[in-house]
Each structure stands twice: as C-alpha cells, then as structure tokens.
Write a structure and sequence with these properties.
With 301 residues, the protein is an alpha/beta fold. The chain is built from 8 helices and 10 strands. Strands 1, 2, 3, 4, 5, 6, 7, 8, 9 and 10 form a 10-stranded mixed β-sheet that branches. The longest helix has 18 residues.
Length: 301
C-alpha cells in the first residue's frame, strides 16, 4: 500500500495515482451458514436495468438463494434496484425471503410508481428545487428518495449484505464507491460512514447520473484522506465499468447467458443447478448471466 499523499493544484496533473493509505477497509458480512454465498452485479440501462435487476432478485427468491446474498454491487440504473433491495432487506428477511414478499415489498411498488408517472416530467416540474446551489443530480436524489428509497442513510443499511453503489470519479479516472461502511476510491482514500451521513438516494443518484443530463457531484463536505484540489467529481458509474464485478477475484469455470426475453427459466435453472462454493450473478437489460466460479475472494486494499 502506497504512502498517503495529499494531491494539490501543483502536483495533481503530474502525481502518480498511488493507493491512499487511509486505513479504512470494507466490512464483509458473514458467509451463509447453508449454501453458497451469492454475488449480484447490476449493470446500467435506465429503468430497464432496474427491472432486470429486480427480476433477478425475484428469481433468486424462487430458487431459495436470495437469503444467501453476500455482496450486491451496482452502477447506473442497476443502483436503483440495488437501493430498493437494500432498504427492504430487513423486512424481506423477516418474511423468509419468499417470492411473494419480493413482489409485495420490492417489485409491485416499483412497477406501480414507474408505470403511473414519468420521472423526466417529475424532474422538469421540480427543476425549481435546483435553486440555491443544488444540482440536477441533487434533484434526482430527491426524486429517488420520494419515489423509491425513503430517508435512509448508508450506515443504516442491513449489515447482512455488502451493498456497493459505484460511481465514476472523472477527476482521477477511478471507481468511486458508496458502501454501508465507507465511501471513497483508492486514490483519494476512504472514510467511514460512522463519521458522515450519506443518503442511499444520493448514492444511487450519483451512480445513475448520466454525463450531460446530470451534473457532477463533488462531495465538498467529505474530507477524504488524500483529497486535493477538485479530486472528487462523480458521475454515472457506467462510465467506468458497465458490470461492477471487480470487487472479487473470480476464476470462471463456466458462463452461460440467455436473452432477457425469458430470464426466469435461464436464471432459475442455472441457479438451481449450481454446485460450486460460490457464484456470481450478473444482470443487464440485454441478457441474464450466471457465472459459476471457483472462488470469490475480496481484493486487497
């Protein structure tokens, strides 16, 4: 691990982006007592990606593996699904992760909201809320808060799953993560969410902030350990990586994909027949994939 070095306006352009020795590391939940730990990656693509991600969660419940979810990592539209799933996790557990519970708590309310209203029209109608220094991304976070997520902060998320919302840091060219236990990137360092309060809705909005349509988020009030001048400019996580699976070092034994026109059969059958220690499930609007893997170990920091 490189020595922590604060970037300044004098050395930023020439400084090597070495890892910041912030001393803050992710907190991993315990692995399931029965069955394999499951990793879920949710890619971008607007509300299509949101529905694709929630659909995969539904079919994990169908085959009895939703309770084995160990890490859930997302970008862009997938982060909306990730946030909805995360903020309902405790209630889903209380109801045994039953498919009916997923429908009633997660899928039906989301479908009803998106089918009955236009998010674009809602944002335009409330554009006046950007007065006073707020940005369009702040407005998106406000809408996510009202529509899907509620007034929940990252540190309040259920500790049984490692929830990861990925954004792109346009200043450093790195992946910036919002997690239950910490936020940051390897250049600027990480800070614990024990010390700051970041709303889940903001994390999802930053992860889904498409360049051009939404403004960068600077998090000026967050004192990242190695932060210098303008070193946190955050936008859509899909600009850095479309499938946020780099948290794990995965040796793939086999991967099978099918068009999402019929994901229930493909995903359910693959999940039901997997017999490896752990496996990762990836969803996108175009395909549904399950990669059976030999090992899934966290990266070092």
């Amino acid at each position: 691990m490189g020595q922590a070095k604060r970037l300044t306006d004098d050395n930023f352009l020439t400084a090597e982006h070495v890892p910041c020795a912030s001393g803050v590391h992710p907190r991993f939940p315990s692995e399931p007592e029965v069955g394999p730990p499951v990793g879920l990656t949710l890619s971008g693509g607007g509300f299509r990606a949101t529905f694709a991600g929630l659909g995969v969660a539904r079919y994990l419940a169908d085959v009895g593996l939703l309770e084995n979810l160990w890490i859930s990592s997302s970008v862009s539209g997938g982060s909306v699904a990730n946030a909805i799933l995360a903020t309902n996790w405790a209630e889903l557990r209380a109801r045994g992760f039953a498919p009916q519970a997923v429908d009633e708590l997660v899928i039906d309310p989301t479908v009803a909201k998106i089918a009955s209203k236009s998010l674009k029209a809602h944002l335009i109608k409330n554009v006046w809320r950007t007065a006073g220094g707020r940005t369009r991304t702040d407005l998106l976070a406000w809408a996510f808060d009202k529509w899907f997520i509620g007034d929940v902060t990252l540190d309040e998320l259920d500790a049984g799953v490692r929830w990861v919302f990925n954004a792109s840091n346009m200043a450093t060219g790195t992946r910036f993560t919002f997690e239950r236990s910490m936020i940051g990137d390897y250049v600027n360092g990480f800070v614990s969410t024990d010390d700051i309060k970041i709303k889940v809705a903001l994390a999802a909005a930053v992860s889904a902030a498409v360049p051009g349509a939404f403004a960068v988020t600077k998090l000026e009030d967050v004192d990242l350990p190695c932060r210098g001048i303008d070193t946190a400019r955050l936008l859509d996580g899909g600009a850095y990586v479309t499938t946020p699976a780099s948290r794990c070092s995965i040796a793939i034994a086999s991967t099978r994909c099918s068009p999402c026109v019929s994901p229930p059969v493909a995903c359910s059958r693959l999940a039901a027949t997997a017999r490896f220690r752990s496996f990762a499930i990836s969803s996108s609007p175009m395909r549904c994939c399950i990669a059976r893997v030999v090992a899934c170990e966290p990266e070092t920091w």
